[in-house]
UniProtKB/TrEMBL annotation:
Residues noted as binding ATP in the record, renumbered to the chain: G238, S239, A240, G241, A242, G243, K244, G245
Entry's transmembrane regions: 65-82
Segments of skewed composition (Basic and acidic residues): 305-317
SUPFAM superfamilies per the UniProt record, alphabetical: P-loop containing nucleoside triphosphate hydrolases
Stretches for region Disordered: 292-319
Listed name of the protein: S-DNA-T family DNA segregation ATPase FtsK/SpoIIIE
Stored InterPro entries: FtsK/SpoIIIE/SftA, FtsK_dom, P-loop_NTPase
Record key words, sorted: ATP-binding, Membrane, Nucleotide-binding, Transmembrane, Transmembrane helix
GO molecular function annotation: ATP binding; DNA binding
FtsK domain: residues covered: 222-432
Pfam families tied to this protein: FtsK_SpoIIIE (PF01580)
Organism: Kineococcus xinjiangensis
PANTHER family: DNA TRANSLOCASE FTSK, SPORULATION PROTEIN RELATED
Length: 505
């Protein structure tokens, strides 16, 4: 019998009993002591809540309900007077109360939310979840610090930002790493971008225009959003109706006082026959909108620079397209001339009235890169754009362009743009094409921007590891016309050389 039992081996399908050990549950006394200790800990940590409650309980027990009601009435009246005559002090004091209430709300739903998001651990027979840290109130929501469990990464929390927003009934949640073992969840309950953003006032003097911080709109946290334009090529990617015009005109408007002072020079390219940029025609020193008759001859700096410019085609197949190619060739010639003069003397351009910052504004870049029908002109345009984007930052010849389709087939040199804006996009994959790999997982849901919020976009800002949602200010047609009237580009002087070789107007 022993031999038969020793020879027996389990077969597939046979039931197997496994001895398991249930973790021992704490006794009733232990649970009571645990709850009492927790209550005492809360009372010590939040005395501004526990002391009034203890005082109210003592008054009610010693003197009855009527004196208690009288005391509560007096306290309420005092609070009303305090709020009316010392609102700042009242707000600071009761901010602690609001913070405590919020923490209680988060603590109540914390474990179910972490378990539902699969961020728990069952080590030791008990469910462990990331520890809830400090809860800080912001103007538009709360910031919640979280201490991660062993083996967890910030990316796991970033991937579940939408789940957190639904769990804690917030409009939006973004996740940012705070260093080793900690992340912060930023919950947004009031959206400052839900309403139209008003443009910031313009400085009275063009010298006061800060090219390193052009005011364009608002961030999702309610702070002003500024764009550092110096040394940057800017790409605005968004589907039709996403609000590219708000960004283009926001940049132009912010530069306008410096334009009329001569420190900034705008060159405009509008392939849609001037539908977008024609409102500000007088702001542009050079302008092209598909009509060969609208592009003026460039003002030459001197005869040597003029000879270095690329020669026009003798017989262009499309005169208007040839004008565009020439405009871009002139920009390249200006850029290369500055680079020659900077050699050995400077590494970056400083805008002056003699050497202004040149900003090439292109309304629809795809026309220049994918839709041109003339092969020779297309090669000229493509070469000029590549040269400007690869070499133009240091000498102060910058490109600001909008495009609907950011794919490589349409824009093969997309990566040469050093600052990119993702407005409403059709496909989720397009978000990473614009902002870089993993941008959508980190919260840049540009494909989910509502059609009722034109001018809303996601950007990656310096010092911010996660994409930030912004909205550009709305600028109406009447204001654009007024802008063009108040800040026209100065008329360039054509320089010639007299018999002595000196330049004269």
């Amino acid at each position: 019998m022993a031999r038969q039992m020793a020879a027996w081996e389990p077969r597939r399908g046979d039931p197997v009993l496994v001895a398991t050990r249930r973790p021992q549950e704490p006794s009733l006394a232990a649970r009571v002591l645990q709850n009492v200790g927790r209550l005492l800990w809360w009372a010590v940590r939040y005395p501004y809540l526990s002391l009034p409650l203890l005082a109210a309980a003592w008054i009610g027990r010693q003197f009855g309900p009527l004196p208690l009601a009288l005391v509560l009435t007096v306290v309420t009246a005092a609070l009303v007077l305090w709020h009316r005559h010392r609102p700042a002090s009242f707000a600071r004091t009761f901010l602690l109360w609001r913070r405590w209430l919020r923490r209680v709300q988060y603590a109540r739903h914390w474990q179910p939310a972490m378990v539902g998001a699969d961020l728990h651990d069952g080590f030791g027979g008990q469910t462990q979840v990331p520890r809830l840290g400090r809860v800080t109130l912001t103007e538009h929501g709360e910031r919640v610090e979280v201490h991660l469990l062993h083996g967890q990464t910030p990316q796991q929390f970033m991937d579940r930002a939408d789940a957190f927003a639904h769990s804690f009934v917030a409009q939006r949640c973004s996740v940012r790493s705070l260093g080793t073992g900690r992340v912060v969840l930023a919950f947004q309950r009031v959206d400052p971008l839900a309403t139209v953003v008003e443009p910031a006032p313009l400085p009275a003097d063009g010298a006061d225009v800060d090219l390193a911080a052009l005011p364009l709109g608002l961030r999702e946290d309610g702070r002003p959003w500024t764009l550092g334009l110096l040394g940057r090529h800017v790409l605005l990617a968004g589907s039709a109706g996403a609000g590219k015009g708000s960004f283009l005109w926001g940049i132009i408007r912010a530069l306008a006082p410096a334009v009329t002072e001569g420190q900034v020079q705008l060159w405009g390219v509008d392939p849609k026959m001037g539908v977008e940029l024609s409102f500000g025609r007088s702001l542009f020193a050079r302008y092209w909108d598909g009509d060969a008759t609208t592009t003026p001859e460039p003002a030459s700096d001197d005869d040597d620079t003029a000879r270095r410019r690329t020669r026009r085609d003798d017989k262009p197949s499309d005169p208007a397209l040839a004008e565009l190619a020439q405009l871009l060739d002139d920009a390249v010639a200006l850029m290369q001339d500055r680079l020659r003069r900077m050699r050995g003397t400077s590494r970056s351009h400083v805008p002056t009235t003699a050497e202004p910052l040149v900003v090439l504004v292109v309304d629809e870049l795809a026309f220049l890169t994918a839709y041109a029908v003339d092969r020779d002109l297309d090669k000229r345009i493509d070469r000029s754009l590549r040269l400007l984007l690869s070499q133009g930052r240091a000498p102060g010849v910058l490109v600001v362009a909008g495009i609907q389709d950011p794919r490589k087939e349409t824009l093969p040199f997309r990566d040469l743009f050093t600052f990119r804006v993702a407005m409403r996009l059709v496909e989720p994959e397009a978000v990473d094409l614009v902002l870089g790999n993993g941008a959508r997982l980190r919260g840049a849901h540009a494909d989910a921007i509502a059609t009722t919020m034109p001018g809303t976009a996601y950007v990656v800002l310096d010092g911010e590891p996660e994409p930030v949602r912004v909205r550009a200010a709305w600028i109406g047609d009447d204001e654009l016309r007024d802008l063009a009237t108040r800040y026209p580009a100065p008329v360039p002087l054509r320089l010639v050389k007299d018999d002595t070789g000196e330049a004269a107007a």
